[in-house]
Structure formats: structure tokens, C-alpha cells
Amino acid sequence: MDIAKAKRRENIAEYILYLWQLEDLLRALQFSPEAVYSQLIAPRRDLEEGQRPVFLMWYMDIANLLREEGKEEKGHLEHTLHLIRDLHDLHLQLMKLPAGEHYRQTYARLEPLLPRLREVMGNPGMNDTELCFRALYATMLYRIKGEGDKSAVTDTIEFISPVIGELAAMYGKVERGEIDLFKEREQ
Q1: Can you state the percent helix, strand and coil of the chain, rounding each to 5?
Q2: Considering 25, 42, 66, 71, which has the largest number of Cβ atoms within 10 A of its Cβ?
Q3: 73 to 9, 27, 36, 69, 181: CA distances (angstroms)
């Protein structure tokens, strides 16, 4: 809960990937409150005793959302998919507006690799932003399994990470009101 809040505030991309990892972890723990408590809450020494039930309820709320959305075995919460759609909308704006000049240059290095990545990921109808997130998450899972040195994995990170990193940073700036996408840049 505290980690998710911090990630949401600091970096939307890390927040989405964290929640995806948490979804898989909750599935692995079979949504068991006892397992969630023993694996995710009890080991934390930074939590006061009174905070532990609050954290358990937060984890179980996510588990219940997965059940309600029919995603007990696979899939991601609509909440994160909605955020990815928001990021994709921003991507589309940055591809047109003056504020996206640097982003377009970063994206241009990735763009030629997208058809192959789309083929590997196996979902031709997915927008580019979701495709990148799914590739990043797959890369994270490969690393957890100790297979992070494969060239497909390292190539993915080399080209996708800068795009998603810049998109997430711009999302944060827009959300905090630090930048107006529609304001012409001063010459």
C-alpha cells in the first residue's frame, strides 16, 4: 500500500508494473489472507502492529477486484489498463504537439522494432503503449527467473525503457500541472 502510493506519486510506469507484479503474487498466494499476511505483511519490520490489518485489507481488496473482474488466473486490473490508455492518449498527443519533440526522437528509435515485438507478444490489436508495458513486464519476469541476459530481453529494455520512462515523466508533469502540452514553446 505504501509502496504503491509512493510509486503512483513518483512514476506511473513503475506503479503499473508494481501492481501487475502484485496481481501475480496474490494469485501465487491463492488469494489466501493467511498467506498474504505471512508473506507480505509479517516480514515487514517497518509496520506498526496497528498498520498490519490496514495493509491486509488493502491486499485483499486487490484480490477481490481480481475476482470481480474474472482475472483470478490471468489478466490485469481495469485500473491499470485504464492508466495505460491514459498514457497512450498522452503518447498520441506528444506525437503531434511541440511539447513532444524530444519524445518523438526517443520513440523513433523504438518504432522500427514494434512490428517484431508485436509478433513476439502475440496481440496484434494492442496499442503501442500497452505493448511496451507488456514487454517490460515480461522482461521483468525473465529477470526474476534468472533469464535476464537473453538478447531479446536486453534489446527490449534498451529501446522500450527510454520511451516509457520519458512518457511516464511527462505524464507526471502534466498531472502536477508543471507543463501545458498545448502551450506553444517559447522561441
Answers
A1: 75, 0, 25
A2: 66
A3: 29, 7, 17, 11, 39
